[in-house]
Amino acid sequence: xxxxxxxxxxxxxxxxxxxxxxxxxxxxxxxxxxxxxxxxxxxxxxxxxxxxxxxxxxxxxxxxxxxxxxxxxxxxxxxxxxxxxxxxxxxxxxxxxxxxxxxxxxxxxxxxxxxxxxxxxxxxxxxxxxxxxxxxxxxxxxxxxxxxxxxxxxxxxxxxxxxxxxxxxxxxxxxxxxxxxxxxxxxxxxxxxxxxxxxxxxxxxxxxxxxxxxxxxxxxxxxxxxxxxxxxxxxxxxxxxxxxxxxxxxxxxxxxxxxxxxxxxxxxxxxxxxxxxxxxxxxxxxxxxxxxxxxxxxxxxxxxxxxxxxxxxxxxxxxxxxxxxxxxxxxxxxxxxxxxxxxxxxxxxxxxxxxxxxxxxxxxxxxxxxxxxxxxxxxxxxxxxxxxxxxxxxxxxxxxxxxxxxxxxxxxxxxxxxxxxxxxxxxxxxxxxxxxxxxxxxxxxxxxxxxxxxxxxxxxxxxxxxxxxxxxxxxxxxxxxxxxxxxxxxxxxxxxxxxxxxxxxxxxxxxxxxxxxxxxxxxxxxxxxxxxxxxxxxxxxxxxxxxxxxxxxxxxxxxxxxxxxxxxxxxxxxxxxxxxxxxxxxxxxxxxxxxxxxxxxxxxxxxxxxxxxxxxxxxxxxxxxxxxxxxxxxxxxxxxxxxxxxxxxxxxxxxxxxxxxxxxxxxxxxxxxxxxxxxxxxxxxxxxxxxxxxxxxxxxxxxxxxxxxxxxxxxxxxxxxxxxxxxxxxxxxxxxxxxxxxxxxxxxxxxxxxxxxxxxxxxxxxxxxxxxxxxxxxxxxxxxxxxxxxxxxxxxxxxxxxxxxxxxxxxxxxxxxxxxxxxxxxxxxxxxxx
Amino acid sequence: xxxxxxxxxxxxxxxxxxxxxxxxxxxxxxxxxxxxxxxxxxxxxxxxxxxxxxxxxxxxxxxxxxxxxxxxxxxxxxxxxxxxxxxxxxxxxxxxxxxxxxxxxxxxxxxx
Lengths: 834, 112
Hints:
The structure holds 2 protein chains of 2 kinds. Chain A contains 39 helices and 15 strands. By secondary structure, chain A is an alpha+beta fold. In chain A, the strands form 3 sheets. In chain A, strands 8-9-11-10-14-15-13-12 form an 8-stranded antiparallel sheet. A 4-stranded mixed sheet of chain A has the order 3-2-1-4. In chain A, helix 1 runs antiparallel to helix 2, helix 2 packs across helix 11 and helix 34 packs antiparallel against helix 38. The radius of gyration of chain A is 36 Å and the shape is elongated. By secondary structure, chain B is α+β, with helices and mostly antiparallel strands. Chain B is 22% helix and 37% strand. In chain B, the strands form 2 sheets. Chain B has a 4-stranded antiparallel sheet, covered by helices on one side. In chain B, strands 3-4 form a two-stranded antiparallel sheet. In chain B, helix 1 packs antiparallel against helix 2. The longest helix of chain B is centred in the middle third of the chain and has 15 residues. Chain B is elongated and about 55 Å long. The interface between A and B is medium-sized, with 25 and 21 residues.
């Protein structure tokens, strides 16, 4: 018994909609059509039995006149009293049956005005649906009573209603993993969907209502635009599937694109994400501000956090605000300080500040488009404990693409396959989050990755590589790796990244697929695989960064890809390549090649190949200049400032036992802390040692003449004119390490790794003067340090020495004595050892 | 029907899958496993600390095929997974009593 009006009307409305795409009109038409059916059914079946004391109300989406073709039709039957409703049970049944026969999916409720004005904790929908109520037909006097009570009810119970609504929303969001970046989203329920738009309207209505009148909701224009976009999609899905289907599958995306001759589906889906993002962010702001108001414990914490405020920012309700938004106009770099604040304290940007930033987008874009030296500020943000939050804040305020327009192409970009769960920009942000969460990894198999990350001297460089590694995915016509490298170079030139960092970032992006491809297609236990990878990465620093980038990249494809099995495999690969890199230090020597200036060849001949790998052309030139200088007096020393440390390079031909120790001791006598050291020697007996050190008491910075004195003193020590022991005698006693003294000394001898020398690996608690003591222990035991690689991570020193004694490997008997000496050297000291 | 279970080197997975696809075998179950046979693990020293690598990463494939195809599948699988070195893995073959497609209760080989 179908109602011909309804089905015919529905078909016409749908045909018109499919032709025009005008969903607003379709929804209104659908509503009018249903209004007609409902009122007719009521006059036919309900009102004859109950002429007074009954009114019909449209509620929910139907009340809002936003009825989608196959949505539920929510009808409220308002009865003056419960008894009257009971007395008319049959009439109600007949009325509803008529509606069902008209093929309407009716969802009805029978209530009295007082029931409508009670808080229903278990039926929040009833309370909320009344915000959208609309009179259809019946007793106007009765309806007027409800309308009079409703505003007072809403304003009186605002907090409870908002709390219930928030809870409902949180539950729904968590069903969708709290993200709107679903490749096949549900346009109604997914975060950022139509339901969230409605949430915004309701919250606004409740907040602005007064006891005498209900407010109307007027969302911001961009939200209304988002609503129209989503409404069109939902309407389309209903028409196409002939039921209340709201899932935008890949097929539906393609079909919709074809229907309205849109560009390819992946492209317009980006539009979807932009709209969903607008709705989601607005909804989250509202939810959070409402929730924050209602928690007292939270507000205590909040007050405590507000003490973090500084000259630029204040902190209210756990959000950072600009003290003076006008500062943004005068000094756009205040923004970088804002993100630094976020990254340091883990405090998010306030909605007000977001809006203040958004209002200045055009100006800011212009300002940051100019090449500016903002890399020092960025690298410090990128290295902070909450860097992923800071970068997400940049993303959410639109600043990420203003700072890096190169990332515009991957905003909301969909990669359609079975593995990727997120859009490309979200993948990048998740990769950063996953990487940073390794800092707290305490269990296998992730713990060693955590150690690696903590050991990174410049995590900010790694973060930049992660940020840019897929930037080329949005360009067509060239491989995404090449495109990403190109884009990263442009960005780095603009923000004036130091050449050293630029080189590292380019390298990481270029090779970011290398380790996963090796894991997938090469035999990890074949020595050749390991050698090949070692040749590609060349240095331990690169290997570490590349391993971490690979971890981050794989783990951000979807939450299930980085299984413990895979994490172990990647770690295995790291381990073997690491050992390959540190053990071949001495074995391979540079052989003369036919080309190149003769001086250069003479200089390079016989250096370990590692020397070429670890030094740039410019550095080699500088070393050659230094070597020339050394010819007059047999020694030349250079001291220079690096970005976060200093470097001393010494060249001499006057090798003697204990030379390395003497230089290490000289640096200690100046109060310097040695982080890294490398010793090289070429065939002609030229010694080239580099020491990277920090200056904890800022001696060199505050006393410019000290740099010169350090250089001349080192030269005198090398030349044997000054005794390093005399210098050290004047040093203050280093304090004993206390709670940090957790690192157990390990001394491992390896007689196999090298053909000519014994490898000694030492792990110990770092302290000032350690390297001097270790080097002295070798010297006093008659050992010669051939090659050395010193690394310090936090307070752990990891030193690899290649040593010889009497021109050969160290004999087992001598090893024992030496080991004792080395262990003694590693002990915490109370006074410098002579 | 036969159930064929193969433990192979992870880096051979793509090759093996391709080869099986070439003879029309699409359906299989793949698991990330660890283990060792006679190819024992080895030790790695990292920063003075010994890492025992006694369980090696392997991939396990499982598939059920009709009796008439079993030999061909085993041959193809073995050829694709072979490097000739220790650690290439093993193939095990079992008799299967019954196969049931849950969706429509198909039985026997038609359920494969």
